[in-house]
Write a structure and sequence with these properties.
This protein is α/β, with parallel strands linked by helices and about 350 residues long. The protein has twelve helices and 16 strands. About 35% of the residues lie in helices and about 20% in strands.
Length: about 350
């Protein structure tokens, strides 16, 4: 008799105030939440103390007091993880290159469980630094075509693209919120995000709002200096309600990430998807992004927004001025942006892709 499907997702840290406020962690939590509406699902993660909670249909188990491999906070592991995998029929590991994922993959191979992985960037010391663990997994579930390519899986028939999703009820337009002409950036304030190009390119009379965690203080200070004489504001510590309101009143969302920063350093994988673009688009807001990594898969140039060259503040300025000077077309782009999200980037659609792949590798 076939066992009922029970999916266990694993991730190094939980999204939220007790964990990490990051795109990768949010991705896993939302995917698990929506999957739990269709099949039995548990999310296993690590933290300071043991905790179990119920989030709707989703069971969340935090394994407390793990060891941190070589002191890396992004690389926790405890043998107690195997007890949580015992009842799984499918295990989905997020972040391939950490010890917990490699050990989970080995456990699943020996116990004849189906195991899959999604690489969301980051990682730590692991055996995968010395030998390829790709074949330890039944399948690799990528969040973009770019991800599949950059990880060398474009010809791997076990590699699939599941994309990413947005809560389209939470992130939605509101006709009662008036657009105020703001160019909005949401994300970590880091050099590879290209925020300096947005500040430099913004016309002096166009309001720019930068929402995100201050990670690099010297970079943040350089942005403040460049913003002198311009209508640039910085906000930190915003919750989802604040973000939704900001998206709804913005003229556009800008994500100007770069491969080479203003300091000359290079980032091989600046974006694996572009979650903030999707959130803004779901709110009916057009986007401007750079022709970098996965972002051209999200923004349809000239339809839902614009794709511009990286490290080009003049190109950003030109598109910002165009949106400001063409309000009717900007509204139409916003409508098209929401339709694109509803067509390709919803969590139920991502869950269906995952479940189809799980079953095809049985």
């Amino acid at each position: 008799m076939t066992r009922p499907l029970h999916v266990v997702h694993t991730v190094p840290a939980l999204f939220g105030t007790d964990g990490v406020v990051g795109g990768a962690e949010r991705y896993v939590l939302e995917l698990a939440r929506y999957m739990a509406r269709q099949v039995s699902t548990t999310l296993v993660t690590f933290g300071e103390r043991d905790r179990e909670e119920q989030d709707g249909d989703l069971t969340i188990k935090v394994l407390g007091g793990p060891m941190y491999v070589r002191g890396q906070k992004s690389n926790p592991f405890t043998m107690r993880m195997f007890g949580e995998l015992r009842n799984a029929t499918v295990v989905h590991c997020h972040q391939q290159h950490v010890l917990a994922s490699s050990m989970a993959a080995l456990y699943c191979r020996f116990t004849k469980r189906r195991v899959f992985t999604t690489d969301l960037g980051g990682g730590g010391w692991d055996i995968s630094a010395y030998i390829s663990t790709d074949r330890w997994y039944r399948g690799h579930l990528h969040i973009s075509e770019y991800s599949r390519t950059v990880f060398g899986h474009e010809r791997n028939n076990r590699a699939h693209v599941i994309l990413g999703g947005v809560d389209t009820d939470k992130f939605s337009p509101d006709s009662n919120v008036q657009r105020d002409g703001t160019a909005l950036f949401v994300g970590r304030i880091l050099p590879h995000k290209g925020v300096n190009d947005l500040v430099e390119g913004a016309p002096d009379d166009l309001p720019v709002e930068i929402i995100g965690q201050e990670v690099d203080r010297s970079y943040r200070q350089s942005l403040a200096t460049a913003a002198e004489g311009k209508q640039v504001t910085f906000r930190h510590g915003c919750d989802d309600a604040d973000l939704v309101h900001a998206y709804r009143r913005a003229m556009c969302v800008v994500l100007p990430s770069v491969y080479k920063t203003v300091y000359g350093t290079e980032t091989r994988v600046p974006e694996l998807l572009g979650q903030t673009l999707l959130e803004g688009m779901a709110c009916g807001t057009p986007s401007i992004c750079t022709d970098v990594a996965s972002m051209p898969e999200v923004v349809e140039d000239g339809v839902t927004g614009f794709v511009v060259p990286p490290n080009d503040s003049n190109a950003l300025r030109e598109k910002l001025e165009w949106l400001r000077d063409h309000p009717h077309e900007t509204v139409e782009m916003g409508r098209a942006a929401r339709e694109r999200v509803l067509d390709k980037f919803t969590w139920p659609a991502v869950v269906d892709r995952c479940l189809d792949i799980y079953s095809s590798h049985s």
